[in-house]
Amino acid sequence: MFELSGHAALVTGAGQNAGAGIARALAAQGAAVAVNDLVAERAEAVAKEIVAAGGRAVPVPFDVTDREAVVTAVSKVKSEFGAHVDVLVHNAGIAADFGQGHFRTLDPSRWRGPVEINLFGAMNCVSAVVDDMCEAGWGRIVQISSGAARVGSDQGLSLYGAAKSGVEGFIRHLSQELAPSGVTANTLALGLQSNVAGAATEMFAKKIPLRRLGTPEDVGAAVVYLASVEASWLTGQILNLNGGSVTS
Question: Cross-referenced SUPFAM superfamilies, in alphabetical order (predicted)?
Fold first, then answer.
């Protein structure tokens, strides 16, 4: 069950935290994994870790907001693996300028970053791989999102939340367009993760019904399911992975 041998995955933002957990989990189930990160050293480190554990992986550092770089990288992955990417996990979502702060205090020059990486980054990646998926009659697109897309907050997340809301809408409509071709598209909305440190984080963690933060392993396990053959009748959905902090 959840066997991914013979499949090729591209995971963006996979050089650390949840992205690294996703890459490791997919590789452990047999997928060949292209490990993307904006920082080459991070992508290389995760790819080496996967290979050392007996998996198959290559680092592919690029900026998801650069369409030409995305297309070039996808072509490289196809050549390296001898197969097209049929599992795309768009996890990259934190711009260099996160855009955190109450909206009225933010200069308009800061508005674009979160939207570029979350929405246009997803579009760039999907566009680069989707034709091969449709022609093959099988594919999995998994978008990593956040509870901030649908739950308001006073923590200065309006730009980030708006960007995530936008990409959730994109995936929802995309799923309907691709379904007849055997390609599924789903969103995994994460709650608070263990890589976010600080006293405020600890306070919020105590309010999570399961009384702990999410881990890279939690996220990796959920993505493995969404990428699997067993999830073939699941598309167009937003799954909340948050320890029960928000239910739907």
Answer: NAD(P)-binding Rossmann-fold domains
